Amino acid sequence: MSINKNTEFSFLESLRNDFRLDLIGDDCAVLPRSEDTDLLATTDTLVEGIDFRLEWAVPELLGKKALAVSVSDVYAMGGSPEYALSVISVSKNLWKDDFASRLMTGMIEYAKSVGVQIAGGDISETRSDASVTVTVLGSAPRQLAVPRSGALEGDHIYVNGTLGGAGAGLKLLESGARIDNSDPGIRNLIQKQLAPEPSPLAINRHLVDAMIDISDGLVADLDHICTASGVGAELFAEMIPIEPDIERTGFDRGKALEFALRGGEDFRLLLTSPSDDLENIPGSELKRIGRILSKSEKLSIVEEGVRSSLNRKGFEHFS
Question: What is the DSSP string of 16-44?
């Protein structure tokens, strides 16, 4: 049997279909746990040179981010994170520099802040790049975890926070800026890249048909929902909540929108709902940004009254 290796996502889809791995396909695997709850399980790896660079990494913030990206996956299923396992691989030089202990300090402090217990893991030496892998276990009410595949034609599309900050922060880091910059706006954007803070679902999950977290980019992750649900979608450019500091720090409106659409790593929740009134729920921070269309419609965006198609283009490993 030949596995499709064209892209990260085609590889995973091939594994799922060819080997009937039905638990693959959402942000977490959903496993039976008890009469009242399901177990949620997810894992993520951050690799030096791909997901972070040592020259700008603050070990404590890297530890926080390594856990946050998996916590975000649990939130994306409407669940609550509970336990975490971590695997750290570092070189001898990094070990001597106390990199690993500083990283774990950041991870443990963040774990306490979100109610997660570090339950174990492993540490090993590597001869090349450093990496950190975190597995998070959580729970959701029985049969109420929110999948990607439930979006329905006519649903409204929402996001629970501003977008583009992490993408802009990455661009600033690549340009030589660092988190100790004197400009508070620049510091804020870099912080969003180095230490994201995902937020849990703050509304009744019965109001949500489909959900995912924004890790690969708004367009790419909305495409994941559309593909899994067999629907189309359109976004309204003027309604997308763009992080204000992007334009304040010198990027123009067009670049700010591009960061919001494709920057990735904002780790906000992207969800669909039949309700058009979720913005008025106190504490939800939800903003309506589009609507779900029929399967025959392509992914598109409406800007100043003009509708144009969107290609999927977001972050993909091996692309």
Answer: HHHTT-TT-SSSSEEEE-SSSEEEEEEEE
* Residue 213: strand pairing partners: 269
Give Rg (Cα) of the chain.
19
* Band of pLDDT at residue 318, cut at 50, 70 and 90: very low
Q: What is the CB neighbour count within 10 angstroms for residue 285?
A: 17
> At residue 59, what is the residue type?
P
For residues 208 and 284, what is the distance between their CA atoms, to the nearest angstrom? Answer: 13
The string of pLDDT tens digits covering residues 257-286 is 999 999 999 999 999 999 999 999 998 999
Token pair 């929110």: residue? 146
Cα angle 79, 84, 88 (rounded to 5 degrees) comes to 140
Closest CA to 179 of 315, 314, 53: 53
In this structure, the dihedral spanned by the alpha carbons of residues 91, 107, 29 and 1, taken in order and rounded to 10 degrees, is -10
Q: What is the mean pLDDT of residues 211-239?
A: 97
Burial class (CB in 10 A: 0-12, 13-18, 19+), 202: middle
The half-sphere exposure of 118 on its side-chain side, counting CA atoms within 13 A, is: 22
From the list 47, 76, 43, the residue with the least C-alpha distance to 228 is 76
- For the record, the structure tokens of 239 come out as 């309604």
- The tokens describing 59, both together, are 């070990």
The C-alpha atoms of residue 24 and residue 12 are separated, in whole angstroms, by: 8
User: What letter does residue 143 receive in the DSSP assignment?
Assistant: T
Residue 41 Cα distances to 37, 77, 140, 275, angstroms: 13, 10, 11, 29
Q: Are strands 232-236 and 287-293 parallel, antiparallel or unpaired?
A: antiparallel
Question: How far is residue 60's CA from residue 83's CA, in Å, rounded to a whole number?
Answer: 19
Residues 52 and 194: their CA atoms lie apart, in Å, by 8
| Residues ≥6 apart with Cβ < 8 Å to 170 | 193, 263, 265
